[in-house]
Amino acid sequence: MLILGLILLLLGIFLKVSILTTIGVIVLVIGAVLFIMGSIGHPVGGRRHYW
């Protein structure tokens, strides 16, 4: 999700499409939260780790 969010964010910035930028930021933040939760050992979706 982090990579997808970053790609959408960059596409939105370069193509000047605000909806892609918004979706990119949202996906990037969700991916970062899931990554951090998985890194500290908190189960995410029933798993002890999240890639």
Please tell me about this protein's structure.
The termini are close together. With 51 residues, the chain is mostly helical. It is rod-shaped, with a radius of gyration of 13 Å. The protein has one domain. 4% of the residues are buried. α1 (2-15) runs antiparallel to α2 (18-39). It is built from two helices and no strands. The protein has helices at 2-15, 18-39. It holds the Pfam family DUF6131. Keywords: Membrane, Transmembrane, Transmembrane helix. The chain crosses the membrane at residues 25-45.
Q: How much helix is in the residues?
A: over 70%
Instruction: Give me the secondary-structure category.
Output: mainly alpha
Strand content: under 5%
Tally of alpha and pi helices = 2
How many structural domains can be distinguished in the coordinates?
1
List unreliable stretches of 5+ residues: none
Q: How confident overall, as mean pLDDT?
A: 83
Biggest beta-sheet profile: none
Total E-strand runs: 0
Shape: rod-shaped
Report how far apart the termini are: 9 Å
Please give the radius of gyration in angstroms.
13 Å
H/E element sequence:
HH
Pfam families: DUF6131
InterPro entries: DUF6131
Keywords: Membrane, Transmembrane, Transmembrane helix
